[in-house]
Amino acid sequence: MIGSLTGTLAAKQPPWLMLDVSGVGYELEAPMSTFYELPDVGSTLTLITHLVVREDAQLLYGFLSDSERVLFRELLKVSGIGARIALAVLSSMSVGGFQRCVQSRDLASLVRIPGVGKKTAERLLVELADRLREDSLNGSDDTVPTGQPTSEAESALLALGYRQAEVTRMLSSLDTAGLSTEALIREALRQVHSG
After folding, report:
1. Is the pTM of this model over 0.70?
2. How many domains are there within the chain?
3. CA-to-CA dists, residue 65 to 4, 38, 138, 142, 167, angstroms
4. Do 72 and 118 have their domain in common?
């Protein structure tokens, strides 16, 4: 089993990337949450990996964090969920965001994920409810600070059509102390439009 790879990022074209490890180029498929954080081509990179061996192929998936790989593996255990849908889940929302969806039984957010219909979303909620406890994914990667104004701002930005990874990035770079929900939204949007 290949657990991780460290090498030079040789190419990246979502959802594929190539990691050159001592002259051997490993092709990996990765979720957009990983692609958002990748360094420039030519940089040294370590990816945590998951290898799938099938009769007709050997597929390698790469993640920047262990919690993403843990969630990927948990999703693969759900009947009817393959790697494509698992990657779509990780590309559409953060690990913490997915945990919150399952804990709050948020069917509407799950059916917005490409490839996830109502029946698949219901299956995810039923089969993962007990497995995705608060600490089950090694504390999630979600870097959005907690607190009611921040949670409300996150929900509002998602409702405006921003992706979970963008919202996480926007809010994690703000000093949220003492800011109201409205101020947080205003600052996050100002940051987007000035960048």
Report:
1. no
2. 3
3. 11, 12, 10, 11, 18
4. yes
